[in-house]
Each structure stands twice: as structure tokens, then as C-alpha cells.
Design a protein that fits this description.
Layout: H1 10-23, E1 35-41, E2 46-50, H2 63-74, E3 83-90, H3 100-109, E4 115-120, E5 123-129, H4 130-133
Parallel strand pairs: 3-4
Antiparallel strand pairs: 1-2, 1-3, 4-5
Length: 144
């Protein structure tokens, strides 16, 4: 278990390994800050992504965005579009969590109970629910 008592399962460890592999494919020639993500859906499908930068810095996209895009393109049902667990990995101490924009993107396809694991190359270091990371997510219904 991590420091906040969310269980790390064999499925989680598989996500971690897939996030490591995704991180190795990042395109970050300007920042040299490679990030990888692996997410699992309610239908138990896994999608990965890496950050992709370009010369016009703000026009790149985060690893979470890349993984969510793969999920959407592969989805065949509603359960294929519901994120239940996600691992984000970068080489930073302490490990990163998704940025604010990505937290909002995850909330579009997850719930307050979606589990987000922060990892570095040594493994998963912290785990949170999306509700902990984004307690007042924007939504058009006006309720959090």
C-alpha cells in the first residue's frame, strides 16, 4: 500500500509497468521531462499515453490527454469510457499528480472514486481518489 492506504493490486502494478513503457516514448525535447500514463476503464481495458511537446510550448499535450484520447477512439460502450484507475509516472521526487487541466479531463470520464497513483521509476509512491485531487470539479449541472 502507499502512504494513504489505497490498495495497490496486481492490476495496478501492471498499469505501472505500462506507464513506464509509455514514458519511454514521450516526445519532450524541450523540457526533457518525460511523463507516462496508463489508465484502466470500467470494462478493464487499458490505454496508455505520453506527453508530446512541440516548439510552440503551450501547444503540446499531457500524457493524461494522450491516454484519454486513445481511450475515446477505442471505446465501444459506456464502460469503455469510464476511468477507474490511472498511474502517472515521471522522474521527480515527490512524484507528480495530474495537472489541473488533466484532473478536469479525468473527471469528465471518471468519478470522485477514480484512483490516481503517482509514481516514479522506483514504483508507486502515493495514491489518491480524484475527489481528493479535485474536490470541486467544474460541471454544467453546477453541483460538485
Amino acid at each position: 500500500m502507499t502512504d494513504n492506504a489505497i490498495e495497490v493490486t496486481p492490476q495496478t502494478l501492471e498499469l505501472f509497468q505500462m506507464a513506464v513503457e509509455a514514458r519511454d516514448k514521450a516526445h519532450a525535447p524541450y523540457s526533457r521531462f518525460n511523463v507516462g500514463v496508463a489508465l484502466r476503464t470500467a470494462s478493464d481495458k487499458v490505454h496508455v499515453g505520453a506527453n508530446i511537446e512541440n516548439t510552440s510550448y503551450p501547444e503540446g499535450w499531457c500524457a493524461e490527454t494522450s491516454a484519454i484520447s486513445h481511450m475515446i477512439m477505442a471505446a465501444e460502450s459506456g464502460a469503455d469510457r469510464q476511468i477507474v484507475e490511472l498511474v502517472v509516472i515521471a522522474e521527480l521526487d515527490p512524484p507528480i499528480t495530474p495537472c489541473g487541466g488533466c484532473r478536469q479531463r479525468i473527471s469528465e470520464f471518471g468519478t470522485t472514486n477514480t484512483i490516481i497513483h503517482a509514481a516514479d521509476p522506483g514504483g508507486i509512491k502515493s495514491s489518491f481518489t480524484l475527489g481528493q485531487l479535485l474536490p470541486a470539479a467544474f460541471n454544467l449541472e453546477g453541483d460538485a
